[in-house]
Every structure is written in structure tokens, then in C-alpha cells.
Amino acid sequence: MALEFAPLNIPFHRRLETLAVIQWWFTFLFLGLTSCIIFAYLFLFTSYYWVTLLAILWVIYDHKTPSRGGRRSGWLRRWKIWVHMRNFFPIQLVKTADLDPKKNYLLGFHPHGIMGVGAFVNFSTEATGFSERYTGITPYLLTLSGWFNFPVTRDYIMMSGLCDVSRDSIDYLLGQSGPGNAVIIVVGGATESLEAHPHNYAIYLTKRKGFIKKAIQHGACLVPVYSFGETDIFEQVANPEGSFLRNLQTRLTKMIGFAPPMFHGRGIFNYSVGFLPYRRPIYTVVGKPIPVEKSPTPSQEEIDKVHQMYIDSLKELFEENKTKYGVEPHEKLVII
Questions:
Q1: Are residues 269 and 14 in contact, defined by beta-carbon separation less than 8 angstroms?
Q2: What angle do CA 271, 275, 281 make, to 5 degrees?
Q3: In this structure, are residues 287 and 314 in contact, taking their beta carbons and an 8 Å threshold?
Q4: Where on the phi/psi map is residue 188: left (φ > 0), alpha (ψ -120 to 50), or beta?
């Protein structure tokens, strides 16, 4: 494959957009590891070992905050860098219905993609205007608990509105912190990233019923969300079910807790190969809320019934919008 290099006379705003994505990419992949290395160095090789001890004590003391609404910062969520990141692709938030601030909502985000770019930009920043579109609604994007064990990194991501995806966190946001909350869960989880191939519309949902149970327990409205283009911004090595690579990835997922996709995108100075995403549009469509009757101890029959309602609503959302956002008419949403 011949490399296509970026020209030297690129407009300055496009360089800013690339820089914004580099910052996010580094945070996603390396900020946690980098913070650990820095604190280990301070502890082992300098006289500032006490800084590391203070950081560890802070993580221990503050361990409940990620499951108690976090520590969001409107200032950070409105950083100009997120606007540049939005414009890189670009990313657009599409509203199809109002959300009543007197109620709580549980939004199921699909698909995960390689890095969940659409979920972050739309719900952990104000780059696409969530607060303006959904007045009185506070979004909380939930992510893996392990993120909140890294000093400094944990506080940085909490400022964007990220919280722990634990049961305690969901119970607090939907049941103890009042109305007007929108909890966003990437239902397919990191394992779904193994399905993130361009023009592939497969999501993990058949056995994912825990979020349905939580919605019923708290009487929170369910809202399906489909992010068109989420799987198009990277190219992933072919890994069909039953292949050696997929079996290895599945085994590693069980060992380390997250899926290790083999992917590439574009580079900083070329358009052909690298680890930055391609400049391809993402349209995140937020569907209509599904009313859910509250039941503190729902039966399996109740959970299955609401789960099917959710699947039907998600399929309808996909069918109604697919041709608007680059999906061929014959393509169908595949539920795994």
C-alpha cells in the first residue's frame, strides 16, 4: 500500500483538529500508564516519594466518588479542544425527541466501535451541544471501573462527566441523586470492539439485560442510541468467528478484562496508516424514550419483555435513519 502524505499547506484549523484527536488518543491509550510510570519513578528514584504516597492515599480516600456522580466540570466539558475534535470527523448529535427533566433516563449506546469516540464527544463534552438540546438533563457516561484506579487520570476523566459503570453507580444516579439524569451505557462493552469493521452493523445485545433490569428497578425511561459511522473510523484486521485471531482475542479478553482489537487508521503526517482515526463522519442518533414501569424486584419475564421492547425500538431507530447517514437500504442491524 502506497503512503499518501499530507500536504504542507494544510489550513491551520485542520492541524488543530488533528492535535485535539492526538490528545484524546493519548489519554485513552496511555495516560493511565504514563501516570503510573511517573509516580513509580518519583517513589523509587527521587526524594519526592511522598508525592506518590499522597496520590495513592487520595485514590483510597476518594474511591467512592466515581460511583457517586463523579466530579464533573462544566469548564472542562466546554474546552475548545473538544470542538476541534468534533470537527475532525465531524461528529453530530441528532435529537429525535425531548427528554423530560422531571424523569431519569438510561441511554443504551450502540455500537462501541474501537474507542467509543461518539459516546465521549457527545456525552462527556459539550462540543455537540447536549445541554442546549436537552435542557435540564445531566449526562453521565459510564466506563470501566479500572480507569478510576489511576492517579490523576481518574480525576481528569471524572471532570468530563465519566463515572464508574458499577451497579452502585447506576443505583445512585437513577435512584438517589434526583431527577434529570441521563445515564449512558455502551451496552456492547469493550468486547463489541472486535466487531468494529467498516460497514458492519453487528451489536452485542441478546444477552445484555443487566441495564434493562436497572431501568425497571428505578422506573427510568430507556432510550436507544445508535451512532452511525462509529465503526468506520478505523480499519481492523479480519477476525471472523472461529479464526485463530478471534479465539486469541477472546482468550485475552477473559484474562485482562478488555478486548484487544488489531486496528489501524491514518497517521499524523499521512492519510494511509497510523493509529489516529480517519476523518469520517459520525452521526449519533438519540431515539425516543421508552416508558418503563418501576418494579424493585422485576421477574425474568418482565425483564425479557422490556428487553424485547428495547430491541424493537433500536431496530426501528436504525431503519428510520440508516439511509440518511450512509447505510445501504439492504443493510440490517444484526443483534448478537
A1: no
A2: 65
A3: yes
A4: alpha
How many alpha carbons fall within 13 Å on the CB side of residue 233? Answer: 26
pLDDT tens digits, 214-250:
999 999 999 999 999 999 999 999 999 899 999 998 8
Identity at 275, one-letter amino acid code: F
pLDDT in tens, 78-122: 999 999 999 999 999 999 999 999 999 999 999 999 999 999 999
Determine the Cα–Cα distance for residues 83 and 93; give it in Å rounded to an integer: 13
Question: Among candidates 229, 220, 151, which has minimal Cα distance to 184?
Answer: 220
Residues 151 and 170: their CA atoms lie apart, in Å, by 23
* Domain residue ranges of the chain, discontinuous segments joined by +: 12-335
CB 220 within 8 A of CB 137: no
Instruction: State the angle between helix axes of 210-218 and 300-321 in degrees (0 to 180), rounded to the nearest 10.
Output: 110
Alpha-carbon span 118 to 8, nearest angstrom: 29
What does the radius of gyration of the chain's CA atoms come to, in whole angstroms? 20
**277 Cβ partners below 8 Å, 6+ apart?**
21, 25, 88, 89, 114, 115, 117, 233, 234, 265, 266
d(CA 332, CA 184): 24
Q: How many other CB atoms are found less than 10 A from the CB of residue 87?
A: 16
- Sequential DSSP letters for 262-277: -EEBB-SSBSSSBSBP
3-state secondary structure of 157: helix
Query: Which CA distances in Å does 260 have to 86, 95, 150, 330?
Result: 25, 32, 20, 31
The residue count of the chain comes to 336
